[in-house]
Amino acid sequence: MTRFLLDIKKYKKYSGRKSALLLILTNQGLWALFVYRLGNACYRSKLPVFFKRVALLLFVFWQKGIEIVTGISLPYSAQIGEGFYIGHFGGVIVNPSAIIGRNCNISQGVTIGVSGRDEKRGVPVIGDNVYMGANAVIVGKIKIGNNCVIGANSLVNMNIEDNKTVLGVPAQVISDNTSKNYI
Question: Which residues cross the membrane (predicted)?
């Protein structure tokens, strides 16, 4: 639950220091993160196989309910670092095999998914301090470096080096600006 407390800390920073209780009660992103963090802790635990499977089955239903209510899909098997911030309500889809680093921000409509063929088929590995703009699509067996900005409505299907800003369909590096002012 330490990771969830770090998530709340980041939400407090963006909310003008509103109380944690108010944020938990009113913020759909935190609802989805809470269910994800519990499910992921169970998934990574050393519980006996039978109990783990039963618990994960329950988490699948709970996660599906949260997905229906919030429009945010964070499967328990995805790897998401602490300080994750979901900026706006809905349309966030994360592949169960995706890896997202620490202190990342994700906007509404973002998809992090599978794409490619043969040895290029896979899901993204996203570094730390990455800002993902509204409706961005990040797909394939690619690596997004640390401190990157992915512009709104971009399609990222190639590796991105650290400290780059990308934009477009397909995304292209447009500057060496980092995510410092976005995170």
Answer: 20-39
